[in-house]
Amino acid sequence: MCAYRGEVHQPSPPFDAPAARRLRQGLGMAPGHVAYGLRAQYGLPIAPDTVAAWERGTLVPSEQELTALAGVLWCSPADLIAVASTLREHRVARGLSVEELARRVGVAAHAYARMEDEGGWKGTERQTAALAEVLGLGPRALITATGGDERLAELLRDAATTRWQAYVKPAVRMLPLPKRVVEPALARLHAEYHAHMAATSSWGASGATGDEGRAYLEAVNDHFWAAVGL
User: How many C-beta atoms lie closer than 10 Å to residue 97's C-beta?
Assistant: First the structure.
């Protein structure tokens, strides 16, 4: 029997095939039982061979199939996703549709769908806070999910190399963190970067290369998260 693949319009979430197999076996079900549940409960004409292929990792379920599979296996979609990193993956892990998440965050569904497709978040500060709450994301995971890692790195590099005080407000707008947390973290970045530069200059005298300072800036996001305790 030919395996049903469905119409996949978006890349599938990172599927945890071993977890799907363990969950099925834990319920005492065979692939055929899962396929029957997908047809009877969700109207998806999935063959047992397809369920077995999912568990082997040779096929990956679509978003709709993954959500239905979680229902049949009595688990959360998050239990079937290896590592969620993008907005879409976190949404699927929470079992939310585009329309439901957009409504709860206060964004038009078509606008949210476009941001999810493009991998860049353009919501307001209030909408960003709502997004973090609905998806259960901390500041670091939120920045990665909303495609802000490079924008944050650029801001932090400027703060470290120039006048850090000027970047407190922009950082607070970008991050779901209070000023009292961001301010000392930026001051620490600035101090650490210039300490690296001073050390390099003292070692190399007139031939200083600045390698220490450059290495620090390349990992500036990690230094910032360490400074705020995340």
Answer: 14
| pLDDT tens digits along 191-211 | 999 888 877 665 554 444 567
pLDDT tens string 43-102: 999 999 999 999 998 999 998 999 999 999 999 998 999 888 899 999 999 989 999 999
**Predicted TM-score (pTM) of this structure:** 0.72
Cα angle, residue 150 at apex, residues 196 and 123 outer, rounded to 5°: 135
Tokens matching residue 38: 């997908």
Q: Which of 229, 205, 227, 202 has the alpha carbon at shortest distance from 216?
A: 227
User: Tokens 């799907």 — which residue?
Assistant: 20
Q: Hey, is 34 helix, strand or coil?
A: helix
CB 176 within 8 A of CB 128: yes
Reported as half-sphere exposure (CB side, CA atoms, 13 A), residue 50 has a value of 21
